[in-house]
């Protein structure tokens, strides 16, 4: 009887009426959910999918897919993607508020499937959300890095060793065209190996060479990366018979196996009486101190899984963005030879034939200005890793509820004509004052983020960039290929933004 009644009710007309009522209920819920939030498409939000159809499907990356929404709703907008509320912050005021003024409110990370699986359950500094584990390991990481950077002779020796190898490699090219990507990457990676694993470790070690190759593979696999990150907006995707997550995560798990092997070996030879000279030893010292204090809560956070993630953060984050920045520097200087000539004059006047030193930084402002301008125009990280609100808060007067994913678009600020004169033009002198001194705090500049989630490796990156570039520019003039075509100043985005592959020539200076 009941089934018959239901069947008679579900006529075509009643079925359509039911669908209409459900649609009205859905949109009322969407309007309530996004009340007082930044503007955005509301009536195009579909159940389960959200505003997926409002994105530009021809776009090559997520930032580009948001462009049409910026045009329609402004540089601060909100949408729903799958199960997540999204806010885009693309104005100087919004970026500063999210990263600096209210950084504690925006300090979270979204614990998506790929993020959790790829960090062994959120045991990571970069992708982990604030909590006892994250705070402890970020502190250990920054302490170890600070100790390393305080030993100026050590860091200069390690960078100088790799810089000499890099210069020799370029000399052997004898002015012939070459792609600098691999040699720059290996030079920086070898410095990071020494910091992370200890004196004498570099990518000539088969395991560390494989570690580098696996990291490169992860970054190069743009198709799987973009698809996996897109599927993360729809939690049900993890239960579907898809191979993309398996392909995306495979290199990460192989990387963890290699690091686990190094960690196990170091435990066997660990001597707590020896001074800390590398990250692994620093982590083992921290664990020993916690055990000595009988601090069970802290000891529970000093597990191998946490250490492995921290070590991979150091290795991957340390080499990739720094080497990519150097690729951008060389591309810009070949396109703008007048600035390269000015750098050469300053190097000759200040240090002559001497080896560049960190003590020379204040006397070589043009190299530092070139690095800053490259970070501004090249935008190695144009769209910061999404932040998540850990409490109900606001952004430029709009309501932003807890657990909202916030994309901070630093590139839009770096290229904003209201913030910078002729923003798309490469001009290092905009960072030098009338007295020839470096301007270090102009505002509207966030290549390393800011606030609580600022990149912990920023001090090391600046040291490496200065020393490597000083060495290369002291020894060589970099010019276009023999056909005269300079590198294209176009970026390819996949987590970081790197220049289109190019070839240049290194002409030895007399």
UniProtKB/TrEMBL annotation:
<keyword id="KW-0408">Iron</keyword>
<dbReference type="InterPro" id="IPR017972">
    <property type="entry name" value="Cyt_P450_CS"/>
</dbReference>
<keyword id="KW-1133">Transmembrane helix</keyword>
<dbReference type="InterPro" id="IPR001128">
    <property type="entry name" value="Cyt_P450"/>
</dbReference>
<dbReference type="Pfam" id="PF00067">
    <property type="entry name" value="p450"/>
</dbReference>
<keyword id="KW-0560">Oxidoreductase</keyword>
<feature type="transmembrane region" description="Helical">
    <location>
        <begin position="6"/>
        <end position="32"/>
    </location>
</feature>
<comment type="similarity">
    <text>Belongs to the cytochrome P450 family.</text>
</comment>
<keyword id="KW-0349">Heme</keyword>
<keyword id="KW-0472">Membrane</keyword>
<keyword id="KW-0812">Transmembrane</keyword>
<dbReference type="InterPro" id="IPR002401">
    <property type="entry name" value="Cyt_P450_E_grp-I"/>
</dbReference>
<dbReference type="InterPro" id="IPR036396">
    <property type="entry name" value="Cyt_P450_sf"/>
</dbReference>
<protein>
    <recommendedName>
        <fullName>Cytochrome P450</fullName>
    </recommendedName>
</protein>
<keyword id="KW-0479">Metal-binding</keyword>
<keyword id="KW-0503">Monooxygenase</keyword>
